[in-house]
Write a structure and sequence with these properties.
The complex is a heterodimer of chains A (299) and B (183). Chain A is mostly helical and 299 residues long. Helices cover 65% and strands 6% of the residues of chain A. Chain A contains nine helices and four strands; from the N terminus they run H-H-E-H-E-E-E-H-H-H-H-H-H. Chain A has a four-stranded mixed β-sheet, sandwiched between helices. In chain A, a hairpin with a 7-residue loop joins strand 3 and strand 4. With 183 residues, chain B is an all-alpha fold. Chain B is built from seven helices and no strands. In chain B, helix 1 runs antiparallel to helix 2, helix 1 packs antiparallel against helix 5 and helix 2 packs antiparallel against helix 3. Chain B is rod-shaped and about 90 Å long. Chain B starts with a helix and ends with a helix. The chains are: A mainly alpha (299), B mainly alpha (183). The interface between A and B is medium-sized, with 14 and 15 residues.
């Protein structure tokens, strides 16, 4: 598998996820409409809204992701050393110079986003800059640039926003079932509605799990791939290996990370703790760091 | 009758194959020349720094004429180089002469302490890093292109369309050792 097939696969998956999102939301709306007795109108509205959300997220998900992390863009004069590292590695990868963002957080971590390499964004935390030396930082940046080059960033940003949307949607759905369950009692097809109600509840419970599974599918393998192509770029796998060691040994979780954005980061930002909701702890968005380090060291 | 159909089918498949591989060869070739122009940008940056550097050193070490001449000559060498091989060679020559220039500078503590000189030195080493990275990108593309040219059956018609293997941008021996890591 070469880089160009990875890119086309990522582009294809992006469209797939966007389409699945629309189908998923519309299906839930359909079921909800049946349970609620309001019929197809509800599904129609959901179809339009989900379509707009899906297309909108294609264009704006990267900016939204950066906004949720609260990172600030920097210029060359703010941190010439970091700027030069990114500049050099971008030249080595044949990429246009990405924008650099810094996130004020003592927990060392990094992520990349952007719809395509021309709009690439690389973001590191202040904790990362403090703890890593130059070769380690190069390893991390090379890993992030590989995500940009492979169009992983497009796919992952869209997943972050659409999955986040599903989580919110599921929440609203559960609540409205809770509070709106009184007024349907005297309808003649009471039985059918009860069935739909049950399906609706099952879907509401399932949706965050499906969302989490999507995150897993898009994240785990590509971390290995980005590690490998990053090491190929710096010609020094040990840099990234020791950076990963330092990052994972730091116990502090990242404050601004959420379930929707966890898979974007170079290692799991929650540091093994639950990311808030109960289902997040059931799955891991990242392959074990020990395994990644072992593979890097055997290169 | 059936023989002609088979023949026509073979010719159509062969033409389709040539059409597809021809396009991919062109893409690779364009990538190679784009990568080379990135090296040019960095080489230009390096040659632009030289006059300033020479002037600065001259201010402290007037009588080291030979070194200045060598550096200036090597700089002109880069500007006149046409092919990737020539450029690599000229760039390596400049690296060598710059080494003697910095060796000379070692003898002048006031020069070494000068802020201007330090800044130039830093920019120069940054540019050298950038040349190294753009060379890496270029050579990766050259390897990709040359491999495509040499595989069968592309190799049989590539010459017909006048595709020639691209030249690598060779590093100096020392640089090669510096980048070498065990994979």
């Amino acid at each position: 598998m070469n880089i160009y097939s990875v890119i086309s696969q990522n582009k294809w998956r992006t469209w797939l996820i966007m389409a699945l999102f629309v189908v998923f939301i519309t299906t839930i709306a359909y079921v909800y409409g049946k349970a609620d007795g309001s019929g197809l109108l509800f599904a129609g509205i959901a179809l339009v809204l989900a379509g707009i959300t899906s297309i909108g997220s294609y264009y704006y998900s990267d900016q939204l992701v950066v906004a949720t992390t609260g990172a600030q863009q920097i210029q060359k004069k703010d941190n010439p050393e970091l700027f030069r590292i990114v500049e050099n590695l971008a030249i080595g990868d044949g990429l246009p110079m990405p924008k650099i963002y810094i996130m004020d957080d003592p927990s060392p971590n990094a992520f990349a986003t952007g719809r395509d390499p021309k709009r690439g964004i690389v973001c590191v935390t202040t904790g990362l800059l403090q703890r890593l030396n130059k070769v380690e930082l190069e390893g991390v940046i090379a890993h992030e640039l590989s995500h940009v080059k492979d169009y992983d960033t497009r796919l992952m940003a869209i997943v972050a926003i659409l999955v986040g949307f599903i989580a919110i949607f599921a929440d609203i759905f559960m609540r409205s079932l809770w509070f709106g369950g009184e007024r349907r009692n005297n309808d003649r097809d009471n039985q059918a509605q009860t069935i739909f109600l049950i399906i609706g509840i099952v879907l509401a419970i399932l949706s965050p799990i499906i969302a989490t599974l999507i995150q897993l599918a898009v994240s785990r393998k590509r971390e290995f791939l980005a590690d490998a192509s990053g090491a190929l770029l710096t010609r020094y796998p040990e840099g990234l290996a020791s950076a990963l060691e330092k990052i994972s040994s730091d116990p502090r979780p990242l404050r601004k990370a959420s379930n929707a954005t966890a898979h974007l980061f170079i290692t799991n930002p929650f540091k093994g703790k639950s990311g808030g909701a109960w289902f997040a702890s059931l799955f891991d968005t990242h392959p074990p760091v020990e395994e990644r380090i072992k593979i890097l060291r055997s290169m | 009758m059936s023989l002609t159909i088979i023949l026509v089918a073979i010719i159509v498949i062969a033409l389709l194959y040539i059409w597809l591989t021809y396009n991919s060869l062109i893409t690779s070739k364009v990538r190679v020349s784009e990568a080379l122009s990135e090296i040019d940008v960095q080489l230009k940056r390096r040659t632009d720094l030289i006059p300033n550097l020479v002037e600065t050193v001259k201010g402290y070490a007037k009588h080291e004429k030979q070194v200045f001449e060598d550096v200036t000559k090597a700089r002109t060498g880069i500007m006149n180089a046409k092919t990737a091989g020539e450029k690599a060679q000229a760039n390596n020559a400049l690296t060598q002469t710059l080494k003697s220039l910095f060796a000379v500078a070692e003898n002048y503590p006031t020069l070494r302490a000068s802020e201007n000189f330090q800044q130039l030195q830093e920019e120069l080493s940054d540019t050298e890093n950038k040349i190294a990275y753009s060379r890496q990108f270029y050579n990766t593309n050259v390897m990709d292109y040359n491999t495509k040219l040499q595989v069968f059956p592309t190799v049989t018609y590539a010459q017909m369309f006048n595709f020639k293997p691209a030249e690598f941008f060779a590093a100096t021996e020392e640089e090669k050792q510096a980048v070498k890591v065990s994979f």
